[in-house]
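Dear colleague,

Thank you for sharing your sequence with our group. We've completed the structure prediction you requested, and as agreed, I am returning the results in plain text so they can be pasted directly into your records. Please verify that the sequence below matches your submission; if there's any discrepancy, let me know and we will rerun it promptly.
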Amino acid sequence: VQLQASGGGLVQAGGSLRLSCGVSGVTFSRYFMGWFRQAPGKEREFVAAISWTGSTTYYADIVKGRFTISRDNAKNTVYLQMNSLKPEDTAVYYCSADRYGRSWPQGASYEYWGQGTQVTVSS
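Please find the predicted structure tokens below.
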């Protein structure tokens, strides 16, 4: 199973980035997908999650209204559109896959993880 995250980079505050995560080795449409992030010296935190068909999405309060998670099951890819970025959004962003989606804010419930992509927001 491989989760390949991409799209990170350096952006000024107020800017936008779109992260992508391509998934292979599993039936993508059977997996609940999540995005998490980890900043230096901080614990990993939940960012967003999306159900198997994309009909339901979940967001951390700190990104609600700024970030949008989506998926394309035909392309085996999940996306994270990030707008109005702030310096405190700087972190390594990870995509993750969970077969059951029962505890979507909890990283421990996800079976598979990508390698992470760095997002740096300058002030």
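Summary note from our side: The CA atoms of residues 92 and 118 lie 4 Å apart.

Kind regards,
the structure core
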